[in-house]
Amino acid sequence: MKSFPNPFYRWRPHPWHGLDVGPNVPRSVHAFIEICPFDLVKYEVDKTTGYLRVDRPHRTSSQHPTLYGFIPKTYCGDRVGALMDSASRGDGDPLDICVISERPISKTEIILNARIVGGLPMLDNDEADDKIIAVLENDPLWANVDDIADLPPALIERMRHYFMTYKLMPGEENKVSIGPAYGFEHARKVLEAAMADYDNEFGAD
């Protein structure tokens, strides 16, 4: 008789709480992808069901320059907030991740292995909303990227511009600020803080 794989999920696991952080933390993590560069609508995982929910259509012509999602079993709480100057707390969501890939990927609700290389320290309404930057593991073009300095500056600026403007409403004050991009060592600290915040919020495995 054929045995079931271990672990076996009779029902779909919640992508935030039911998946592992990654195969080689802190360098290599799992990323659950919510948005691809072809999307003109912002999708966000529904915290209760784990399915994607339409959050809002993009209000500008900006399109996300990379795959975008979050790292499972992470939570941006007090520890994440303490790593960013001027932040009063984390934003209360899983840790966001941008994944760079040579080949265009148009599907969402997928899981992939991503190698962390750095991040952007985004402050949104006084809350830390870090954007971890990673490359698709085993990607033929980006395979040798180990740190943020190995990426083209234009690509980093493209991500910065997107996050500075994707919530901007005409006539309203921009409440988002982004500091200089950081490398892997600080990204590791943010990830470890988000994992500790998750354990504090939801309990360790």
The CATH class is Alpha Beta
Query: Helix share of residues?
Result: 10-25%
CATH superfamily: Inorganic pyrophosphatase
Count of helical stretches: 3
From the 3D structure, determine the CATH topology.
Answer: Inorganic Pyrophosphatase
Q: How big is the Rg?
A: 17 Å
Question: What is the quaternary state of this protein?
Answer: single chain
Order of helices and strands: EEEEHEEEEEEHEEH
Question: Secondary-structure blueprint of this entry?
Answer:
Blueprint: E1 28-35, E2 41-45, E3 52-57, E4 67-70, H1 78-82, E5 89-90, E6 96-100, E7 110-120, E8 122-124, E9 127-128, E10 131-136, H2 153-165, E11 176-178, E12 182-183, H3 184-202
Parallel strand pairs: 5-9, 6-10
Antiparallel strand pairs: 1-4, 1-7, 2-3, 4-6, 7-10, 7-12, 8-9, 8-11
Describe this structure in words.
The protein has helices at residues 78-82, 153-165, 184-202, and strands at residues 28-35, 41-45, 52-57, 67-70, 89-90, 96-100, 110-120, 122-124, 127-128, 131-136, 176-178, 182-183. With 205 residues, it is an alpha+beta fold. The chain has a single domain (28-202), classed as Inorganic pyrophosphatase (Inorganic Pyrophosphatase). It has a 5-stranded mixed beta barrel with strand order 1-4-6-10-7. A 4-stranded mixed β-sheet has the order 5-9-8-11. Strands 2-3 form a two-stranded antiparallel ribbon. A hairpin with a 6-residue loop joins strand 2 and strand 3 (52-57). The longest helix is centred in the last third of the chain and has 19 residues, at 184-202. It is globular, with a radius of gyration of 17 Å. The chain starts with 27 loop residues before the first strand and ends with a helix.
